[in-house]
Amino acid sequence: MPKRAGRRTQGQEKIARDRIDKLLNLAMQSSIDEDYKQSKRFVELAILISKRYNQRLTKAQRLQICRKCNSFLDSKTSKNRLSPKGWKTITCLSCGSVCRYNVQKD
Predict the structure, then answer these.
(1) Range of the domain at 19
(2) pLDDT tens-digit profile, the chain (106 residues)
(3) 10 Å Cβ neighbour count for 31?
């Protein structure tokens, strides 16, 4: 009888989260160096690891990634706007997709 695969250990999940953080930091660095193709590949790898190990990205990490084309969003590759009604609008300059987020007022 073959050994049944069980739940992943907490150590494996921690390694997955660390790798996701490291890949997103590498994506930020390569986007600063204007190597957008490599930056996009780092983001894709981070998303694959998060799906494989069932680890959700934090809100800050999700806001840095375009949902449509998986490119890393920074000041050179996106346009950020705040509306008077309390919405933050992020426009990806590579694919043109628009995401709107509600910003809490103080």
Answers:
(1) 10-102
(2) 566 566 778 899 999 999 999 999 999 999 888 888 999 999 999 999 999 999 999 999 999 999 999 999 988 999 999 988 889 999 999 999 999 988 876 6
(3) 23
Q: Is residue 21 part of a domain?
A: yes
d(CA 99, CA 91): 7
Q: How is residue 24 written in tokens?
A: 């997103």
Query: pTM for the full model?
Result: 0.84
Residue 2 domain-assigned (yes or no)? no
**Residue 99 CB coordination number (10 Å):** 16
Give me the number of domains the chain comprises.
Answer: 1
Has residue 4 been placed in a domain?
no
